[in-house]
Design a protein that fits this description.
alpha+beta; Heat Shock Protein 90; Beta-Lactamase; 3 domains; 16 strands; 5-stranded antiparallel β-sheet
Length: 549
Amino acid sequence: MKIGRYRMRFQTTITLMVLSVVALALLALYTMISIEISKHTREGLEQRAVGIARTVAHTETVQKGLEAGGDRAAVQAYAEEVRRANNIQFVVVIDMNGIRLSHPDPTLIGKHFSGGDESPVLRGQESISAATGSLGPSMRAFSPIYGEGGGQVGAVAVGLSLGSVKTAVGQNMWLLYWGILLGGLLGIFGAVLLGRRLKRMMFGMEPDEIARLLEERSAMLQSAKEGILAVDKELRITLINAEAKRLIGEERRPEAAPGGSKPEAREPAADPAESDFRSLLRLERVLASGEPVYNLEVERGGTALLVNVVPVRIEGRVEGAFATFRDKTEIALLMERLSGISLYADALRAQTHEFMNKLHIIMGLTHMKRYDRLEEYLQEAVPSLQIEAGAVATQVKDPVMAGFLLGKLSLMREAGIRLTVREDGVLPEAAEPAVSRELVTIVGNLLQNAMEAPRPEDTGKEIEIGFVYAKSSLEIGVRDNGTGISGEVAACMYEQGCSTKGGDRGVGLYLVRRSAERLGGSVSWESEAGEGTCFVVELPYFTKNGVSG
């Protein structure tokens, strides 16, 4: 709240608002209760006065004293006794002419009743009135007096001073004053506690700070390149940003309100595709188990998504789930490029190592001046390299794949693994560079799996690779002489994370199958225990210059 140039804190504002409401409520309560207390106190005093007047009117001493020859002194004595006993202002008995037979001031006995409000009672009617008499302002209760014959012989007036009435009302109001004071103190205490509680709930922030933070958060969520989706424990979507809508395929849905950069919170949609998407993200599993899911790869409409889902816990209870996901096309492309670069780097490292070894041999032979042995070594080394390069260049026309295989040949030769490129087929250059990158992914991961495949003891590792191209179709075969694939691994070997090599493995065959399916092909395999494994990838293949097999 801003007053002039001064901006009050949220806690102060809440406290003052609550106090204002409490004050208004207590004021209204005071007004209503004070009116009721005054009314009931006055009515109680009036009824008391009427009761005393009726009692006096029915007393035999008073009735006989008003008859002819009655004892009027006894009337005065009785009236004074009643007045003192009830602590009231006066008890006055009058005859039918309004002449006093009793009065607190004996000098006024025999004189006419003053006040002018005695007429109704002389006509036989009980009445209550307020008037000013010889003793000052008073509240008066009148009751007629009847004789033995049934006829009215006079009346009695019982008076309470208005001052005593006000005093009685004031005494009864003290309870109200104490109640109002207690209510005010409780209101102040509650207002302060409420202000502090709300301040803690808002993490000590002011409303304008929260509003600014919400705007910043909303702008950040909407500008994020990742899809962001939050659901409650009933799988109702509570938060979704623009990128998530695009990836889900919600462009057809109405957009948020104009100018709103805030994420949209919606009730559960009846769209089956959206429900299927929530299942695809494993949201039900995360809500049920409370365990997060990281780096999950899913396919949606031909688009690969990389998904992370974490449970939202409030006071230890799972109250929802939060998913972030991103189109993995760019990530996959970058990963494939990095994978290729990594493979190239490994190959170059192996070639460099091998070349340095050869240079050391040449240097040593030269230093010892064993030129005859140096000539023999060069005649052995150079042709073998030429033969390998010539075989690859003859069978593999795609320069990317050729360079990749040459590097692999050097790497495997250094590792003591024999890699053979079959000579009964050929690999033409692909029409699209993207296809070459996919082939590097397929061949690289198949060769890596073959290199890591366990083999029988005392057996040298041998790997064979071949390419067969015919009628716009390419077949890639990779065979090893390992121990084969067990049934347990075979059941899940194409799934991400399925591996017998420990954590953070089990990606190679998953990438092979995904790349093959992306190119419209398939992967098959054969394995015999102790004999090895052969993977065959078949896919449509279009060459750069329209060469056909």
